[in-house]
Amino acid sequence: MRGSPFFEGVEQVDAMLIGQPAKLPIFYYDGTAQTAVFPARLGALRKLLPDPRFVPARLAPGLGAVGITCFEYRDTDIGPYNELAISIILNQPRHVSNLPGRALLTGLRDKQLHAWVQHLPVTTEIARVGGVDLYNYPKFIASIDFEERAGRRICRLGEDEEHILTLDGPLIPTPDSGRLQLFSHIWMDRQPQESEFKLNVTAGGRSLRRGAARLALGARHPIARELAGVLVSRRSIYYELMAPFEGILYGPEHLSLQFVHRALSLVAGREPAAV
Length: 275
Fold this sequence. Notes:
The longest helix is centred in the middle third of the chain and has 11 residues, at 125-135. 17% of the residues lie in helices and 46% in strands. By secondary structure, the chain is of the alpha+beta class. It starts with 12 loop residues before the first strand and ends in an 8-residue tail after the last helix. The protein has a domain at 31-108 and 117-130 and 140-171 and 205-244: Acetoacetate decarboxylase-like (Beta Barrel). The protein has a seven-stranded mixed beta barrel. It has a four-stranded antiparallel sheet with strand order 7-8-9-12, covered by helices on one side. The model has no long low-confidence stretch (mean pLDDT 94).
C-alpha cells in the first residue's frame, strides 16, 4: 500500500525507462504471488547454469529443485504488470555443504531464498526494458493471465498464442505475515550478479502437501520443452501463496563500471550505451 511504513527510510532516485518516468529502487505497493517448487534432475540443472560458481541446491541424491512463481503486480512505480519467474534453487553460499534438502529448508526457515533466474517473462515493455538494461534479466514479453475458480488460482503463460505452461494451485489459508528476501542470481557482463527483492507479506500461507500445485506444459514452446527435460514430476513438493504483499526491488549488488554507466544513463534520462 502506498504510504506503508515498509518503504520508510529507502531513498529513491528518478529515472527514465523508454521515455517514461520511473524510480529506483522500484517499489511494489500491492501484489499477489504463488510459488510452486518441483523436483528436477540435478545434472540437467547444472547444464543450464553458465558458470560453476552457480551451484544447484541438492534436494535428494541426483535431484535439484525448480521454482515457478507467478506475480500479479497491481500497483508499482512502473505501473501494473504481471511476471512469471522460472528459477533454479541454489546452494548459497556455494562453499556451504550441499546436503540433501539443506539449502531449501534453511532458506525457508530463514526466509532468505537464493535462485538462478532462468526465464522471466513480463507483460509490459517498461518492465522488460528495465529488467534487461539494469539487471540483464532474461525478460521477454508474454501473456500471463490469472483466474480463480473452485478454490484454486490458475496462472497461464503463453507467447504468440503458444502455450508455455499453466500453474494451478489452491487458494490455501493465509494466516502468516512477515518479511521475505528473494535473491535473484543472474549473469551480467559474463560475471555472477545478484539482486534482492525484499517482500513484506501481509497475508501468506504454505503447503508441504505433495501435489498441492500442478503444472501443465505446452507441447512445442522451447521453454516448455526445456522444463519437460529437467523436471521429474509436475506435482509440487512445496507451495506458497502471498496475497497480498508489498516489495522493494533493489539494484544489482555488484557495482561494476559497466553497471554504474548504465544506471547513470537511466537516471540522466538517456538510453544506456555500451562503455
